[in-house]
Design goal:
Elements lengths: L1 E5 L11 H12 L6 E7 L3 E7 L6 E7 L15 H8 L6 E4 L8 E6 L7 H10 L2 H15 L14 E6 L2 E8 L2 E7 L5 H18 L9 E5 L11 H4 L5 E6 L8 H10 L1 H45 L4 H26 L7 H12 L15
Parallel strand pairs: 1-2
Antiparallel strand pairs: 2-3, 3-4, 4-6, 5-6, 7-8, 8-9, 9-11, 10-11
InterPro entries: ARPC2, ARPC2/4
Subcellular location: Cytoplasm, Cytoskeleton
Protein name: Arp2/3 complex 34 kDa subunit
Amino acid sequence: MSRHRQKHNMACFQRESPALKEILLRLYRAEKPLEFDHHLYEFGSVEYHVQASASIPDNTYLSIATPLLYQDFILSSGLPRYTLEMVKGISPDVIEIIEPPKEGYKLTLRLKYSRIPRNKGGVKMIASISSVQGVILSSQLKDMLMNVNSLEVSQGMYRPVKLIYHPREPFFVIKQPEKITAVFPMRFKEDTDVIIATAFFQELMDIGSSKAFVKAPHCIWSPIPPAELRGEPIEDLSTNGGFVSFDITGRHVEGKRLDKTVWNLLNFYAFVKYHVKSTRGFIQRRMRTRLESLVEVLYNAGIKDEHHIKKKNRGPKGVRKLLNFSKSKLLKKRYNFINKIKRIRSRIKIHWFSRFRKRWLNFSRFSSVTRYEKLN
């Protein structure tokens, strides 16, 4: 039995699990049946258990343990019937649902490898099967969007429903008249990430309000929690990036739009993190390029100053020799320091750059360090 932990710094936009897909393809492409027993962990809370027997090569068992989006969906018999139908629909000829599932898991599947074609279509089918965890979670949100009346409480009041797609990244769904509002509390570790994300949210609101995107879900960003989240635990409302809300109406969940809307909501955190990371990298590259250009200008200015001093200070041979020695030594130190700056590849901060600017722009000229000694 082997165990493997797959680490993810940020959620993947792909529906299938890359690690699970690799394992299933290994069994699919094996020249002879394999004896296989492997545990795979993803996102710290998702576990896959893959079992294959050399004596019965046609049957491969896949068990999945995953937290559900909404705990009220947990049934004594396992997953909701709607979720099981969606899992079965991935590949009805290949997937068989084993009930009850293996102890400690939410779902157990029997995969019939003999029914998978040996061509590109078979590889595509394996990729679809490896997306089973995404299908389980997205099916719950689909069920909520299609059956919104189940979220309504008495006396015409509507309560927020807390959903958890990834650990430490909950969001809320609130049923309101003629629409459903999804609210995302945004949290960031770095202050610079907060600045980048805030600018992005404001731009998202501006673009969403334009005529070109009138059919897109209405987006609102606010530094304080919306009124619909009053009464929620303080730890869920403590953020440094504010709250982003999307209004989902009937036209956003019609037909094929339902699947796209659900997937975009589940991966909104991942998209924001990707945007912040890319923007931060772009800014750092521009700062490095600017710094290298500045160093090159200063270096070229130093060469011109040296040439000017040589022409201006032409005296006795002994004096010129002494001047050349002191100037060459100083230039050597300056050249070494410039090379050190050019090799900088670490993160550049603004306060470091201002200290660098003060030192170089106030650097004294060569003529100020010229010295003469009395010759006997």
